[in-house]
Specification:
Belongs to the class-I pyridoxal-phosphate-dependent aminotransferase family. One of its GO terms (biological process) is amino acid metabolic process. This protein is α/β, with parallel strands linked by helices. The chain folds into two domains: 135 residues, Aspartate Aminotransferase, domain 1; 238 residues, Aspartate Aminotransferase, domain 2 (3-Layer(aba) Sandwich). 40% of the residues lie in helices and 14% in strands. The protein contains twelve helices and 13 strands. A seven-stranded mixed sheet has the order 2-8-7-6-5-3-4, with helices on both faces. Helix 2 packs antiparallel against helix 9 and helix 4 crosses helix 8. The longest helix has 22 residues. The termini are far apart. The model has no long low-confidence stretch (mean pLDDT 96).
Length: 394
């Protein structure tokens, strides 16, 4: 018999466990399954960063830090952004968070009042929608498929005009993008800045993949519209520190002081030992991610060519480590059905596009954060599935 309990938070009725995680776990029991599902680097954390963490343990650096992080890690994070992307942050512009996920939650929890509108270009990573719902905001999604997954000023204007009853407070940017790998050129960001200013929108810019940009150098929108930007970053992707959960929020100092209130009551502070490791990563491993990026480019080019040859339509990714591919017309366009069938028959797990919203239906996401041997085997299995007439829709 279950224990009696009162009703839970009503917002939980609108929130599900991420379809990414659900699908990853559901396929784990398939024998010989090859999974290219999660967005996690296959590289090890750089040795010098590991050493810094070990030294912190040996030095018994095990007590609470200040809520926003140690002065050293906040300075290192600010210096990193300033040197890499031409920004002008000081330690007082930084909060150290438990990963970028907590950073997003704290930022949205600070700026949203019930009913406030948030523009979300879609398809997009699945973390934003539940948080907007949890804080009683109003998510308004913008389908970017017609423009190769890039948000335009006209889309912003049209969206706001179509919802005159909504008080639009913010827009989410995530670039390079999860799931598409598409990023924004500087001129595209400059065009967006004018419309963001016109509508007085906060820009919550998740740039966690900024060090994994291929081709043109990454431009942070914080360089173009600093006083309206809440910049999210971290070391999960650039330094393969996913499990260490270290992220950062950058914003004007007065806003940081408000975000710190939400952050404090969520987590108190980020882990002390990991903050020491982060100082080492930021100060002495600023280009560690660039070495990883060289391998990702080779992997991207290989997978892009192989899947294009199989008939998948792909908006060429210029960052992150994902391929977001349109399922060929000869096959079941229900992305969940396609991916389940592929996993069961050919033991290859890819993420259904529906996991990134209705705008992702008909697509699938492949993470190429795996070595070439695995990627070659994955392409062999995918090709075998695609070339089997029995798998095509009659």
């Amino acid at each position: 018999m279950s224990l009696y309990r009162k009703d839970l938070n009503n917002q939980l009725k609108n929130i599900e466990v991420s379809e990414i995680r659900q699908f990853d776990e559901a396929t784990s029991s398939i024998p010989d399954i090859l999974k290219l599902t999660l967005g996690e680097p296959d590289f090890n954390i750089p040795k010098h960063v590991q050493t810094a963490a070990k030294e912190a343990i040996d030095d018994n650096f095990s007590h609470y830090t200040s809520n926003a992080g140690t002065p050293e890690v906040r300075k290192a994070a600010a210096d990193f952004q300033n040197k890499k992307y031409g920004l002008h942050y000081k330690p007082e512009n930084v909060i150290t968070t438990v990963g970028a996920s907590e950073a997003i939650a704290a930022a949205l929890g600070t700026i949203l009042n019930p009913g406030d509108g948030v523009i979300v270009p879609a398809p997009i990573y699945s973390a934003y929608t539940p948080l907007i719902n949890f804080y009683h905001g109003t998510e308004v999604r913008v389908n970017t498929r017609s423009n190769n997954f890039v948000l335009t000023p006209a889309m912003i204007d049209q969206t706001i005009a179509a919802h005159p009853d909504i008080n639009f407070k913010a827009v989410i940017l995530n670039y390079p993008s999860n799931p598409t790998g598409v990023t924004y050129r500087k001129e595209e960001l400059e065009a967006l800045v004018d419309v963001f200013k016109k509508h007085n929108l906060w820009v919550v810019s998740d740039e966690i993949y900024s060090e994994l940009t291929y081709g043109a150098k990454h431009t942070s929108i914080a360089a173009l519209i600093p006083h309206q930007t809440i910049l999210i970053s971290g070391l999960s992707k650039s330094h393969a520190m996913t499990g260490w959960r270290i992220g950062f929020i950058f914003a004007d100092a007065d806003l940081i002081n408000e975000i710190k209130k939400v952050h404090q009551y969520m987590v108190t502070a980020a882990t002390s030992i990991v903050q020491k490791a982060a100082v080492e990563a930021l100060n002495n491993g600023a280009d560690d991610g660039l070495e990883m990026a060289k391998q990702y480019i080779k992997r991207r080019d290989y997978v892009y060519k192989e899947m294009s040859d199989m008939g998948f339509e792909i908006a060429r990714p210029d960052g992150a480590f994902y391929i977001f591919a349109k399922i060929p017309a000869a096959f079941n366009q229900d992305s969940m059905a396609f991916c389940k069938d592929l996993a069961q028959k050919n033991h290859l797990a890819l993420i259904p596009g529906h996991a990134f919203g209705e705008e992702g239906e008909g697509y699938l996401r492949l993470s190429y954060a795996s070595d070439m041997d695995k990627l070659q085997e994955a392409m062999h299995r995918l090709r075998a599935y695609i070339e089997n007439p029995a798998n095509q829709v009659n």
